[in-house]
From TrEMBL:
Belongs to the complex I NDUFC1 subunit family. InterPro entries: NDUFC1. GO terms for cellular component: mitochondrial inner membrane; respiratory chain complex I. Pfam families: NADH_dh_m_C1. Keywords: Electron transport, Membrane, Mitochondrion, Mitochondrion inner membrane, Respiratory chain, Transit peptide, Transmembrane, Transmembrane helix, Transport. It is found in: Mitochondrion inner membrane. Accessory subunit of the mitochondrial membrane respiratory chain NADH dehydrogenase (Complex I), that is believed not to be involved in catalysis. Complex I functions in the transfer of electrons from NADH to the respiratory chain. The immediate electron acceptor for the enzyme is believed to be ubiquinone. It is a single-pass membrane protein. The gene is NDUFC1. This is NADH dehydrogenase [ubiquinone] 1 subunit C1, mitochondrial. Complex I is composed of 45 different subunits. It comes from Pantherophis guttatus.
Length: 76
């Protein structure tokens, strides 16, 4: 019983010092320069966001129109 409690205490113990990783991430090549943004990437991000929102709103309007049409058919 005591050995089990010691093992559980050792396992749940918070490490005193966190060591940094030994290697860098593959995806982290360099830091982005925040003073000089990549305007092509910014434009692509914003335009894709706008496109997705437009598609979402158009699909919602289509679904609402279809709902109203079916509701009208059912009442008739």
């Amino acid at each position: 019983m005591a050995a089990t409690l010691r093992a559980a205490k050792w396992f749940l113990q918070v490490p005193r010092k966190v060591t940094p990783p030994l290697s860098r991430s593959v995806f982290q090549i360099g830091r982005e320069d925040s003073n000089n943004p990549n305007w092509i990437r910014v434009g692509l991000s914003l335009s894709s966001t706008v496109l997705l929102w437009v598609m979402l709103i158009r699909h919602h309007d289509y679904e609402v129109a279809e709902y109203e049409r079916r509701k009208k058919e059912q009442d008739s």
